[in-house]
Specification:
Length: 261
């Protein structure tokens, strides 16, 4: 098996090292793991592509490349320039922090997996939820490292085998904010929404008198509706959410169609 890995935390991120070990075990001794990741952190860029300017790419080691672009850029560079043939699977992550609930819409990690799916390749985004039980642990990625292989294999075992049925799908995985020994297993979960939580801005004035804005995230320990991703994670379970790059609200579409008739 040939596997491409990428992320949005950058080529030197510790989560990418965790993902490399997961991918190597999935690929097997006769497989290949290729890394094409952003040269610098690209958190929060979503599915952005560098459409208006070129990006520099550099080979750092055999099968290991850095690109001055987004995770989606990295997937495009890998598929259409770097790899000798298309990969069988794309893994994106392991992200530093969760990509559950509304975070999905901002996530570069998810954006990388989405681009692979749009290119017709099975893809999984993987993120490690942080919280009081693991955020300051010696290995905050322990849950992802211990459970990553079995989670990816479980998804591969259930993955649709035909392009029409499955290869525009991608999967969003979030490992819970707890030590690996406290993980309670896998749960299929819909994307949720954290009530009362949203991104905001915080103003600062520099010593030179110029005003700058920092983007601030909301409280990540707020649960979503029961059975949805962040609620599942806060119950020490791994959430697995199948997704498509299709934002259509089917119920609203049906209602609108009736109104237009």
């Amino acid at each position: 098996m040939r596997i491409l890995i990428t992320n949005d935390d950058g080529i030197n991120a510790p989560g990418l090292e965790v993902l490399d070990r997961i991918a190597a075990e999935i690929a097997g001794p006769d497989g290949e793991v290729w890394t094409v990741a952003p040269a610098f952190e690209q958190s929060g860029v979503g599915h952005c592509i560098s459409y208006t300017h070129p990006m520099m790419i550099a080979e750092l080691a055999p099968r290991r490349w850095a690109a001055e672009g987004s995770p989606a850029d990295c997937v495009l560079a890998a598929l259409h320039d770097i790899l000798p043939a298309r990969p069988d699977l794309v893994l994106s992550g392991v992200n530093r922090g969760n990509n559950a609930a509304e975070n999905v819409l901002y996530s570069g990690t998810v954006g990388g997996a989405m681009e692979a799916a749009l290119q017709g390749i099975p893809a999984i985004a993987l993120s490690q939820f942080f919280g009081p039980a693991n955020g300051r642990a010696p290995d905050p990625f322990e849950a992802a490292g211990r459970w990553g292989v079995r989670t990816v294999r479980a998804i591969l075992d259930t993955m649709p085998r035909t392009e029409d049925d499955g290869y525009r799908l991608f999967w969003n995985v979030n490992f819970p904010p707890c030590p690996a020994g406290d993980v309670r297993g896998l749960s299929a979960a819909a994307q949720g929404f954290r009530p009362g939580t949203a991104f905001t801005t915080e103003s600062h004035v520099s010593p030179a008198g110029r005003r700058f804005l920092w983007i601030r995230g909301g409280d990540q320990q707020v649960a979503t509706a029961p059975g949805t991703d962040a609620a599942v994670n806060l119950d020490n379970r791994i959430s697995v959410t199948p997704m498509r790059a299709d934002l259509t609200d089917r119920a609203a579409l049906a209602s609108l169609s009736k109104a237009f008739e």
